[in-house]
Amino acid sequence: MMKKLLLLFFAAISLIAAPKFLMPEDAFKPSAEVNEKNQIVAKIEIAKDIYLYEESIKLEVPSESGLVIANIESPKSIDHYGDMAYTTSPTFIIDLEKNADISGVKEIEFKLSYQGCSEQGLCYEPYTDAFKLKIDTNKLSSSKTKALKTLDVKKEKSQNKQTEIKQIDTKEKSETDMIADVIKNSSLWVILLTFFGFGLLLSLTPCVFPMIPIISGVIVSQCKNEGRCKAFTMSLIYVLAMSVAYTIAGVLAGMFGANLQAALQNPYVIFAFAGVFVALAFSMFGFYELKIPDSIVSKVSTTGEKKGGFAGVAVMGFLSALIVGPCVAAPLAGALVYIGQTGDAVLGGAALFSMSLGMGIPLILIGTSAGKFMPKPGEWMTLVNAFFGVTMIIIAIWMLERILDSTITMLAYSFTGISFAYYLGLFDSEKTHHHVKKSIAMIIFIYSLALFVGVLGGSSSMGKPLEVFKASASSSFVKQTSSHKEFKVVKNIPELDALLEENKGKKILIDFSAQWCTSCKELEHITFADEAVRTKMDKFVLIKADITENTDKQKALSAKYGVFGPPVIIFISEAGDVIDSKTIVGFIEPEPFLKHLQSI
C-alpha cells in the first residue's frame, strides 16, 4: 500500500514541477566512423551537466554482415551518484573480425545505444542510432571464437586491460534505494515536494504521536487566552525549530554514517530531557511559572515576554526533534543513503527539511486548534493544564523506558495514574455534580491499580498487566511449549559472521534492533507475534542484531550493512548474498510483512 501511495505521489508531482532541460539532440551527439586501421571509432559527445550510464552503452553489428566485434577499447568510467557513468564525452574504438567467408569492401549498419541523465535531475529515455559504415574485410582476420554481434560496456577489463563488457543490470532495488534515486535523478522542486509528501505520510505513524501533547501543552501553557494567531505562530516556530534540528542531525548522520537515533540516546541526555518535561509538568500544575529570565529576553528582543515565549517554544521544538523525534523510516534512510554516497549535504539536507515540514503540518493544525478552542479561565482551564501536566510526566516516563527496567517504569505509570485520579477528586467525600470527571478518575484509578498489581505479579505488559496471572493459572493444567524458532542475539561482527558461517545454504533474517527503539518494540509485539508470520519465519534462520549500547563494535556492525538506525530487517539468500531489494526499514504490519516473506 505504501509503495502505491508513493507511486501516485510521484506521478502527481511530475505533472506539477517539470524542470527545464536540453532536448535529446542537444544533450547527445553520437557519431561513428572507420579509421585508417579499419577500426570503428564511436563517440558520444555530451553537453555540459549531462552524463551517460556505463551500463547503457551497447555497440552492435548486424549478424548477416559476417562480422563480429572482437575487442573494445573504452575510456574509464567513474562512480557517479552510486552508478558507473561517463561525465565527459566517451570514445570507443572497436576491433572487428570476420566470422564468414567474405572479402572486399562491405557496407554495414553499425548501431550505437546509450542512455543518460541531466545533473538537473531528469533522465532521458534510451536511444539507438544507426550509422552506415564501409569496412575493408580484406584487412580483417578471421574469428576463432564464438560469434559476438553485440557488446555492452562493463567495468571488467579484457586481455588488453581496456576492453569493458557489461550486460544490462536488472537488479531490483529496495524501497530505500529507490527513494535515494529520487534525489539523484529529480529536479529540486520535485525532490522538495516529494519529501514533503513523505513527511505527511510519516505524520500518520506512531513516530510523531509523542510530539502532539508536547505542542498542545506548550500552546496551552503559554498562549493563555490570547487567540488563534499567536497559537499558529508558536506552532509554526515549534515545527521550524524541529525541522532545523532534524535536518542538522540527519545531515551529520549521513556524512559520518552515524546511527541517527542512538547518537542522542545517552542515559545522561535522556535523564536531562525527561527532567525538562517534569519541570514543564509542574509549571502546568501551578507550582511556578516556567519562562526565560527577563534579563535574557531583554538582550534578545525589546518585545519582552512574548518573544521569550517564542524562544522557549523554539527550544522545545529543537530538543523534541532530537530526543522524541520520529523513527528511522524508508524516506529518511533514503536521504541518508544519498548523503552518504554523494556527500551532497545541501540537497540531502533540503530533502530532510522538506520532509520535516510535512511531518509538522498536523502539529501546526493541532497547536493552532489548542489556541483557538482553549477554555476561558476557570476550573476547566485548571483541569486542562493538569491534563497536559500529567501528559508531560507520561512522556518523561516513556523516554525513561529506553534506559530503565520495565518494572520501574510501570510503577511510575501506576503512581502517576493514581495521583491524577486523586487530583480529579475520586476520593473526595463531598457530593458533587461532576459525575463525568469522577467516572474518568475511576477508570484511571482502576487501570493504574491493575498496573501496580501486575508489577507485583511479575508482568511487564502495559496493555495486559494482569495477563501474567492467567498464564500462571493455565500453566498448572497445560504445559505450553513453543514450536517456533527464536531469535539468536548478536552484538558484533564476529558473532554475526560465526552464525552466518554456521548456517550456510539457508535463508537468513537479520533484525537490527535496540531496546530504546519504539518501532522495534512494535515489530516484536505486533508483527513478530503474529502466528502466521511466526510460522513463515520458521523457514528462516532468525538473528537479532542488538545495537542498544551503540558501542564501537555495534557501530561497525551497523555500518557493515548500511544501517542508520533500527528497526531494519535484512535478508540473506541461500547463496550467502544480502538481498538488497528485500530490506525493510521501519515498522511493517503483519499482513504486508507476511507477503514480503512469501516473496523471498
Topology of this structure?
Layout: H1 2-16, H2 24-27, E1 28-34, E2 40-46, E3 50-53, E4 58-60, E5 67-73, E6 78-80, E7 83-86, E8 91-98, E9 105-114, E10 116-118, E11 127-136, E12 150-152, H3 175-185, H4 188-202, H5 211-223, H6 228-256, H7 267-284, H8 294-300, H9 305-323, H10 330-342, H11 345-372, H12 379-400, H13 406-423, H14 435-456, H15 467-475, E13 488-490, H16 493-502, E14 508-513, H17 518-527, H18 531-537, E15 541-546, H19 552-560, E16 568-572, E17 584-585, H20 590-598
Parallel strand pairs: 13-15, 14-15
Antiparallel strand pairs: 1-2, 2-8, 3-7, 3-10, 4-9, 4-12, 5-8, 6-7, 9-11, 14-16, 16-17
Helix pairs in contact: 1-4, 3-10, 4-11, 5-9, 5-11, 5-12, 6-9, 6-10, 6-11, 7-12, 10-11, 12-13, 13-14, 18-20
How would you describe what is shown here?
- The protein is 48% helix and 15% strand.
- The protein is built from 20 helices and 17 strands.
- The strands form 4 sheets. The protein has a 5-stranded mixed β-sheet, with helices on one face.
- A hairpin with a 2-residue loop joins β6 and β7.
- The longest helix has 29 residues, at 228-256.
- It is elongated.
- Mean pLDDT is 74; it is low at 1-19, 145-149, 154-171, 296-308 and 473-481.
- Globally, the shape reads elongated
> Major sheet, described briefly?
5 strands, mixed
Strand content: 15-25%
The number of helical segments is 20
Main β-sheet, spatial strand arrangement = 13-15-14-16-17
Helicity level = 40-55%
Segments where pLDDT lies below 50 for 5+ residues? 1-19, 145-149, 154-171, 296-308, 473-481
Total strands: 17
Mean pLDDT: 74
Question: Pairing-aware structural class of the strands and helices?
Answer: alpha+beta
Distance between the termini: 19 Å
